[in-house]
Amino acid sequence: MKLIRSLFISLRIWFVLAGFVVAFVVAYAVPVLFPVFQIAFGVFVLLLLIELVLLYRDSAAGGQPIFFARRDMPDRLSNGDENPITLYLESRYAFNTPVEIVDEIPFQFQRRDVLFTADVRPNETKVIRYELRPTRRGEYSFGSINVFVMTPMKLLKRRFQFEQGRLVPVYPSYLQMRQYELLAASNRLTEVGIKRIRRIGHSMEFEQVRPYTQGDDLRTINWKATARRSDTNQSNLVVNAYTDERSQAVYCLIDKGRVMRSPFEGLTLLDYAINASLVLSNIALLKQDRAGLITFSDRIGQIVVAERRPGHMLKILEVLYRQKTRYLETDFEALYATVRMQVRQRGLLLLFTNFETVSGMRRQLPYLRRLAKNHLLLVIFFDNTELRSLLNAPAHDTEEIYLKTIAEKFSYEKQLIVKELGQYGIQSILTAPRDLTANTVNKYLELKARGMI
């Protein structure tokens, strides 16, 4: 029974059998050909038996499995990123084995193309790599690795199954967080769109001298230290480095209301905000600030008090992993009351939300002004990229002109929101979802360089 379940007949056999059926029909009309076709059919059956014996060896010399496969992947996947998946195949057959591999990936990916082919030589380890991009947080169930092994004749297939199911959680974009962390450590944040911000004034405490890098303020060059060098090439210039003001509270306030449910490129606005909050919190800790978190919708969700201690980023990551969108109207009054009770000292509040109209923003404006009275408030909301593409496309008929006019109205409303927030001294960012992380980190570094926090 086990043999039947693991035995598959290739398409090639059906073509051969169809050929024999035609041949025997012809032999019925030409009897002299009948013995020839009988011998050919006997040889074909013999080849099938030989192939069956070769495929169904249970073990190689030394008792090792005749074929082995495994899936190598992270213990958790990063949401919105390309996560590497590696398949390892090992063959101990005495001949080259053409194989087909079907990896049973979670249904959330909605992919039907995870089928690979390869030729595995005797005692060779074959490596197959591919990538998966999840767009939702939660648990993903991976199934088996189905490997169909054939002989060089490719008449029969033997199926092997490995990795009998595995649950893997999908967390907020920790790969993006690590990327920004490594680039920040090597002073290469400009590679991901982070601008080098020049400090205004030098009221900060002197820390050390270091080599000049492109973008440093020329006024910080230490000419005396440079003169001690053997030559005066730019590569040997040194500048004074100053320490930023440290231990400031940086809170990410994440709106989980229905306005954050909108999808862009597979991810919801909430997921974009969560990924950006994770990166920003890590950058804040690297800048010696304290990172905190408050989630809210029609009621207050999770609160992570701003701290800077070992394991704090893991705590923020676990809290962000569990966040889900709610479908009710966001209560900004409850947010203001919570911030007033939880955040006693002045800090930076990064509010991730979305406003589509000026009237919608004005309903929440009294609470935003109260938040900005005691803290530096940065409101971050989203530009509608679909409307932007519609605006850039030419209009050919009356309907398209009408749609373009409506799109221009909504786009203009977004600009009015930025302008009105600025009139009340509230900082704001209007950004495309894909640029959210870079723009948020840029603004944080700018505010820090200007001494506003």
TrEMBL record:
This protein's record includes keyword Transmembrane: yes
Pfam families: DUF58
Top-level taxon of the source organism: Bacteria
Membrane-crossing residue ranges in chain numbering: 12-30, 36-56
Domain DUF58: 208-385
Coiled-coil boundaries: none
Keyword line: Membrane, Transmembrane, Transmembrane helix
InterPro entries reported for this sequence: DUF58 (IPR002881)
PANTHER family reported for this sequence: BLL2464 PROTEIN, SLR2013 PROTEIN
UniProt-recorded name of the protein: DUF58 domain-containing protein
Organism: Fibrella forsythiae
